[in-house]
Design goal:
Chain lengths: 235, 158, 619
Amino acid sequence: MPKLTINGSEIQVPEGRSVLEACREHGIPVPTLCYHPALEPYGACRLCMVEVSSPPRPSRLVASCVHPCEEDAVIETDSEAVRKSRKTTIELLLAGAHNDPMLLALAEEYGVKEIRFTLPEEDLCVLCGLCVRACREIVGVGAISLINRGMARKVSTPFQIASSTCIACGTCVLICPTDAIKLKDITHFHSVHGADSEFERVYCQICDDVDLSPVVIQDVDVLVGAKVDQEADLE
Amino acid sequence: MQIPVSEIHEIIDREAGDEGSIISALEKIQQHYRYLPKEALILASQRLGVPLSQAYAVATFYNAFSLKPKGKYCLQICMGTACHVRGSPQLLDQMETKFNIKAGETTPDHLFTLETVNCLGACALGPIVVVNDEYSGQMTVQKSDALMKRLIRKEGLD
Amino acid sequence: MVSIHTAQELDTWRESLTAKVDPDLPVITVCGGTGCRVYGSEKVWTAFQDELTNQKANARLNYDVKVTGCHGFCEKGPLVVIHPQGIMYTNVKVSDVAEIVGETIVNNTVIERLLYVDPQTNEEIECEQDVPFYKHQHRLILGLNGLLDPTRIEEYISQGGFDSLKKVLVSLSPEDVIEEMKKSGLRGRGGAGFPTGFKWELCRQQPGDVKYVICNADEGDPGAYMDRSIMEGNPHLVLEGMIIGAYAMGANQGYVYIRNEYPLAVKHLRQAISQAEEVGLLGKNILDSGFDFTVKIKLGSGAFVCGEETALIASIEGQIGEPRPRPPYPAEFGLWGKPTNINNVKSWASVPIIIDKGSDWYASIGTETSKGTVIFSVVGNINNTGLVEVPIGISLRELIFDIGGGIPDGKSFKAAQIGGPSGGCIPAEHLDIPIDYESLQSLGAIMGSGGLVVADEDTCMVDFAAYFMRFTQEESCGKCVPCRVGTKAMLETLERICAGDGQPGDVDYLIELGEEIKRSSLCGLGQTAPNPVLSTIRYFRDEYEAHIVDKTCPASVCKGLITYSVIDENCTGCMVCLRNCPEGAIQGEKKEVHVIDADLCTRCGMCMSVCKFDAILVE
């Protein structure tokens, strides 16, 4: 059971806790974007940065969601360095998602007065990867992934067309922190950004009742043709 | 282009067996066809048991992969630091103007693909231009102009 | 090929190989490094072969000719060195071959016109080792590069290769090896400089039977190519280092992660692995020690970020090269979740040398805190482009002027950029600093993987910084916000400044943002990406201000801030520029002074490079 100091108070936490989890358990607020308790931590949004000092080494910033609670660590969650880092990150997040209410509220809290860099087009998606991870880790489907890299990175289905594996469960829509993925209506469903795909509602094969799992109209397999499937089946 | 399924399976199977072999398989497919046909990507993901979304992410993440067919001539301009300070950006400008495409694009007639590459490690010869694996060193705007004219003439476009 | 099962058999094989070497037989080595190949060294080699066949047919004389790895002096290629004398010929052409055989091999006379001429003294220099470029070097890792045929394991064996492995397997425990590495003071040559011995110890101490060692050969720093040369020229040295390391850490499987842009290095490495397997130096029960080890090659597919340990691991696992947070470190949780040790090519290649000569000897080279030698690829505006291996602690001045031969065309030195996209520049006032990990860091640069780019007075430091920022921006994986968006914001600011649209406050914004990106990014790529910008601001802030306030580019580089015009007095009206201008921006009649239309001119520089009369002015 490591013992550590957070914001001047000594606390003891069970083995294996991340700093963020320890903070949450002790009611210490730390903003997050790419963190979700049901998913593996990812460490990408850098909003949850905290300052760790282990003298004589100079203090450094770490992402609390992925940083383990280490014995005798001294952690500050709201120091000047932390606030500066979060302020910069929020400003950078607003470069694309200019109008997201959650980010605007954070901007207010951290004193972001101007956005000095903006992307040419508004993009609500902040690439936190929650949808991709939820689809893979919770739904167990992996219909979407983070494609390309750098500034070109985005969430997409393969080939940016309707995915044959998507079950249109809507988890990605629910978990998205910036409402970047839209559920149009019950029957017609925008799967993910850039993939303007429509799904037809069908009945669940198991209970024959709830109409959740759809059939994909345009399917990647159609591209290859039945021939491939036949061959694959023969092997 | 018709992609023979058995041929792709053969390429994939040579790489299969090793965990993480999707990248090696895609490398071989890229080498063979000089791009990654959509069908091949789907086959590779099925054959190796890798989610298609992962295979697609891999194919779009790494520079070595291209989802579009490349031109008959692939002109690569080294953008390494040594080549940069010796004038490779000028060469790129010149080629972009000449072919009327941007780096990474292919001319509509599928003859020329223009690419920039990170350091090829032949810095003494910078700037370097590579045409289908053939290196030309110490390039100047005149030399590269001559090179392009030669290729164009060869294709009877002049 | 023989099959080696015991240490004794290795010795016997080595003896039989050395016995076959006739010390008096002339050996012509032709450099087969990538640089020399581009210059045409393969044709030169073939010509020597043909000449040999011809000579043999006439039973006149015999000599040996072989293609070796990179000699390092890439500026003067193709290089030919004739042993045993060590006579070095530069810029050798096929047409020189008959003369070299006739004069140097038959008559034992030196062909003066092919010798290297020292530009400082104007003297011709006969022997490779007397050329200033080589004289000031301390070539440990690169030592055998110019001597060996890298495609034959026999050559490496006869030069003492795998003797260190034998020593380790016969007489040292894994702990002894680690102790030896710790005492040597070797620090990771990939850039971060973490002590190698301690890294190994950490991996050894991890529980579990399955461990991995990885050779990071994803040399991505644009302008650095020493890893490539080592693998092309002496791949067995790297393998031997890996086998020793694997033994020390208890790993039975190794990987070499190598850039696919390096086809020759991949080929030589593949050959080296299969030869080592064939003779039994890789595989089961190596030298009857009970230790098993195999090596696989994984090709990098073009992503600079994969030089980062955790991204490299992800890539081997078949994922996108996305770094993950550390801890846990690869030593605890690496490839497939197993303890893994990753070292750079140069680090692995140093291992057999340390074991062979001893840690004390190795630690005697270098400075208090940085031991051994370091390899730089000295490129850019420098007379002697090439690979240079020097003791750590040598001064930058020695490196650039004594070894590198100074700046071409009588221009002045402006800065040396060390450490590539993660590094910084060092201006003229610090030329006398010793090159070691700490000194470089204190000046805002890093040792990095050894790229050293020399910038002369014609280099615009803002443009130079923008170049590196563009590179890291394009290579950012995009996972974390500060690196993905932050580097883009920095790049756009720099591009604005270069285009003449800079505003007051831009420099402060770059500093503020740069510092935050360094502190908040997830991996080494982002944490170092702002360095080239911050260090150019530190030393060349006036150049930034000139762009922003005066709207001028002092080095006349930035297109948005320069104009091309014709110098009336020099223009002969030859019409060459007019005909070559891709935009049709030049007007004029034959034998009349030409005029450039500034509105049509795209500042491509074509006119300037074709003008034979220095009649184009850029300002």
